[in-house]
Structure formats: C-alpha cells, structure tokens
Amino acid sequence: MWKSSEKKVVWYPDDDEFDGPSADDDELKKSLLYHEASLSQITTQTDDEISSDVEANLRQMGYL
Questions:
Q1: pTM for this structure?
Q2: Which of 3, 28, 29, 37 has its CA 20 to 30 A from that of 49?
C-alpha cells in the first residue's frame, strides 16, 4: 500500500487521531483501520494456569 516515505500515516487509537505527511489521505486511513480490525484480539486468561499448547512451546524452547 505504501509506495514512498512521504505517503504514510500514524494512528493513535487512544485518541482516535491521525498524524503524518498523509494524515488527510482517507484511503490510507481506511486501509490502516481495516488492517487493525483484521488482527486477532489477544485474549487474556484470568486463572493462573497455562494452556497445554503454551506449556509445550515453553518446554520446546527450554524454559520449562
């Protein structure tokens, strides 16, 4: 999407503000918001246990 360093926009979601050389470019802003919406939301666990997948990954990496 971005073809040059002059064509970029930064989104500050807490304030819902855009900044950068192309902050007025509606197409870039829509693309950025679409990308953000497509990301998987990270879920947090409220208990003190980890899933078996996480445990297996930690064991494989040598942490457990």
A1: 0.50
A2: 37
